[in-house]
Amino acid sequence: MNMTYPLPDFAPEPKARIGFLLLDTDHGSDREILSLVPADVAASLVRVRNYEGRDLRACKDEIVDAARLVYPDARVDAVGYACTSGSFGELGRLLGGRGPVVTTRDAVVAALAELSVSRIALLTPYTEQLNSVIEADIGAQGIEVRSSCALAIDSNDLIARLSQRTILDIAGRMLAEDAVQAILIGCNALRVASSIRYLEETYGKPVITSNQALVWRLLQISGYSSGNRDGGALLGA
């Protein structure tokens, strides 16, 4: 006996399709990124090999190739490279500009300009040396780092497991400084998205994180306005 079924029904087309290229050694970015992406936006996560100790031009080619794996059978609005340390340096320069992949560095610089801040605090799990590279780069864009904290955590697993209590304590002390207009919490592997709104409401200053800035920039390129209050002043506009 043949049965009659209703015609198939489909969900609306996503308002945007964006992609993120995560390091294969990254333990924290996936959940962070997806927590910030609006429900009506399609997001694809693709893993790429860590750049450390490798030929950077070969890494750049691999990253560009990986971008083609983001929804290969559909329109893609923007793709981002979700690695802060790799974005600030030679690899970032190779990828930067108007290429097919937006770096976290370029997203952070655009976010700082969007929020019109010129004096910030910088908190990362990196070394002092890498923090100095970041400071010099954003300093060339007219952003002065008034306070810097480098936690020097050398394990990707430990970076992803850094407690919210630690982040809130350090970031709170830095935001309390009168000379600081905002804080940049750098590193895509840090799980800090759930603390953005609390820090902003407590200290009355913008909080910029690597993943938040990258999500915002890709949505901006896509022509999508998020309105996600949990994503802070940047994503909540």
Automatic annotation (TrEMBL):
Transmembrane segments: none annotated. It is an enzyme of class 5 (isomerase). It comes from the Bacteria. PANTHER family: BLR3294 PROTEIN (PTHR40267:SF1). Keywords: Isomerase. GO terms for molecular function: maleate isomerase activity. This is Maleate isomerase. Its EC number is 5.2.1.1. The keyword Isomerase applies.
